Amino acid sequence: MKGTVVKTEYACRVVSQQFKADSWDDFRIGAILYSPRVSLEQADALLVLYDPSEELLKFTGPKLWFTMEPSWHSHFRSHPVGKRLVQELDASERAFYGNPDATHRVPHPTYRGTSSRPRAASVSNRVIATVNNFGGRLWFLKSHFRTRNRMILDSRVELFGFPDAWAQFRHFPKFWIRRPPDNYMGRASPAANADDHIRFLSAYQIAVCLENCTEPDYFTEKFVYAVRAGCIPIYHAHATVKTTFLSGARWIDPADFAFSPRRTIDFALNQDQMEFRSINDAWLESGILTDTDEQKLLPKLHAIISSKLRIRDEFLARP
Q1: Structural domain boundaries, residue 58
Q2: Do 189 and 201 belong to one domain?
Q3: pLDDT tens, 18-30?
Q4: pLDDT, tens digit, for every residue of 64-100?
Q5: pLDDT per residue as tens digits for the range 201-227
Q6: Short-list 127, 143, 131, 145, CA closest to 191
């Protein structure tokens, strides 16, 4: 618009309850200052990370909501603000793994900085599954209610997790809340940091990777942690994940065995772990996961915010 002065420095408000953004220091990337202390009224742009926020409904300038949970998550299906955001935000105002616009498709992080491989000196011929958090419908690698628990109820699978957290998950078998299954090992795996968890997994030949869902382009750290541990992964992937992130990797898909836990685990226990390790170590080193480095997340979101501000400024500068 004629006479409008285009700014050269900007302030972007950052909001996130999950990531405790209120405690973050201000930081600058290029011409944009990112700060949780910039008021909505003073902000040139708004960046919301993870949690649904009413601020996204109030703010009329360039804005972006980054999410990484699967589509069934309560943030999108039952949260009153989240449901509105799904309906009212334009696709260009969202950044997530399945965005139809490739420029706004931001994968779920799978590692941070380095894909180190802290491994135990000895490995036992055993199978492990960890359910440390609420998880999702693909915990059991089969959606049907009669069969979805079977994979991690197999007596050869050592199950670790938080029963107190299971009680809060509405799809979890209620009888487990009163008494965990017989193969529950009585504690959770170490989860304070990735290396401790990976080293813990590495004592097992096989890891059942319990993904939250099977959706286009949805791929998380679970498979990556098993590979970094040197385990043979049991994993069920969406076709889009197989042809992108998993290109060059090797795993055992229970779909090849009609989701039979017995047949899947029997097959896995008879595989050469060192052959899997060799192939998957090369996969880790190939650079195929570069875009899933958590350290690249903010620069990617910054690029989207910068583009939005540039487009707005170009519009305002028109005569």
Answers
A1: 10-107+294-316
A2: yes
A3: 999 999 999 999 9
A4: 999 999 888 889 999 999 999 999 999 999 999 999 9
A5: 999 999 998 887 888 999 999 999 999
A6: 131
Domain with residue 263: its CATH number is 3.40.50.2000
Residue 262 structure tokens:
């017995």
In single-letter form, the type of residue at position 210 comes to L
| Tally of domains in the chain | 2
Say if residues 160 and 210 touch (Cβ distance below 8 Å).
no
158 & 234 share domain: yes
